[in-house]
Amino acid sequence: MPEGKPNSAGPIRVALLGCGTVGTEVVRLLTDQAADLTARIGAPVVLTGIAVRKPNKHREVPAELLTTDAAALVASDVDLVVEVIGGIEPARTLLLEALRSGKSVVTANKALLAEHSAELFEAADASGADLYFEAAVAGAIPLLRPLRESLAGDRITRVMGIVNGTTNFILSGMDATGASYSETLEEASRLGYAEADPTADVDGFDAASKAAILASLAFHTRVTASDVHREGISAVSASDIAAAKGLGRTVKLLAICERVTETAEDGTTKESVAARVHPAMIPRSHPLAGVNGAFNAVFVEADAAGEMMFYGQGAGGAPTASAVLGDLVAVARNRVHGGRGPRESAYAGLPVRSIGQTPTRYHISLDVADRAGVLAQVAAVFAEHDVSIAAVRQEGRVDDASLVIVTHAASDAALRSTVDKVGGLPVVRDVVSVMRVEGEEQ
Ligand SMILES: NC(=O)C1=CN([C@@H]2O[C@H](COP(=O)(O)OP(=O)(O)OC[C@H]3O[C@@H](n4cnc5c(N)ncnc54)[C@H](O)[C@@H]3O)[C@@H](O)[C@H]2O)C=CC1
Ligand SMILES: N[C@@H](CC=O)C(=O)O
Ligand code: NA
Fold first, then answer.
1. 57 an active-site residue?
2. Which amino acid residue places its CA nearest to atom 1 of ligand 2?
3. Any idea where the domains of the chain sit in the sequence?
4. Do residues 359 and 395 make contact, with C-beta atoms less than 8 angstroms apart?
5. Which residues bind L-homoserine (predicted)?
6. Which ligand is nearest to the Cα of residue 86, counting in written order?
């Protein structure tokens, strides 16, 4: 259907690709809320087929709609394709096919969007179809629509928060009850929070994809997952959590997307963007410290609006399906009444900086010999590498002591070589914990 042309012909015909945790809930909401959806859209929604891989698996969905031929379903007479399969292929090929033939797409697939949004948007533009993906970042929380639409008149400078429910569930469990990493991960999978391969969660790939999507929207620049510095939580130990607690902090996996403005000597300014995902210690008084379980929370800072916080359920079948349905209604309304949602906006084309160019603060906890001069030796190594110390705490025990150091902002490379050298000092028994620090005054 050409762009903007209203569909007064009848119902909105929808194909659903995938029927796992999210897909099942999408079908439930479409069924339970059919009358309200019809009233809100101005036309009934008809689910014409559900593409699955295992048709004999028990599901609470109409069996007669199931098909294993996703390509044929996409090629059939539908207005809208909802994709909740996940992963790159076959989702990419199916959605390109749908968009090229003028069918609008709603997807929750952050992995795909963080790698292939350019070709997906190109295909959507060529046919005048819509591409909506609110569920792809922070589950139920309306975040992408505010960035794409509500804040389109402002200048966003920073987007920072917790965007992965599984890792937040694990870290808050470790912090609150000392629960083990593996037990909590199993529970997160059972509750439908984790990705099909939970490595995507714990190694930070999922959060990095989300950071790429957020940075692209916030800074009108194409940022892909490979542009995002990524560290997961698999190296976060019970000692890190204990060290954080001892300092009135907690550990969270953060996604941080920043607009960086540098002023040259001649007064000219140069802008770039930086995006990173890593565990960080934050003060327990910080609003993100109280975000527990599978909840997500994201701060957005913009020049005119100031600071905003978006909070809610970031994972799980029903919360994610809520976001999918919201997009489905928006796209269906566009079909019924004419018009089209926003296109990709990558006009700014800002360069993306590497983490090496983005200084951060660090917490380092060392087991050291309890003897005079240890602090001086350790401090000398920091000075030698130009890593400035902001605070030091030393606690003596009978024959050894712990030394906790918090640095001022330092580059990743400088910090790594400092820690390597400090770890080799004869007076240092063990480097107990090294972690970035966020959310405090510099
Ligand atoms: N579970 C959650 O909390 C959230 C998930 N998402 C995203 O939503 C998407 C779906 O996630 P879940 O429902 O949790 O995953 P899931 O693994 O529970 O469901 C995916 C389903 O797709 C099926 N599938 C795989 N290949 C297929 C194919 N070729 N044709 C038809 N079906 C196929 C699988 O058998 C599975 O049943 C993913 O992109 C995920 O990243 C986004 C936000 C939250
Ligand atoms: N696996 C993801 C699901 C939602 O995006 C998460 O844990 O956040
Ligand atoms: Na969302």
1. no
2. 194
3. 12-139+317-337, 146-313, 355-437
4. no
5. 195
6. 1
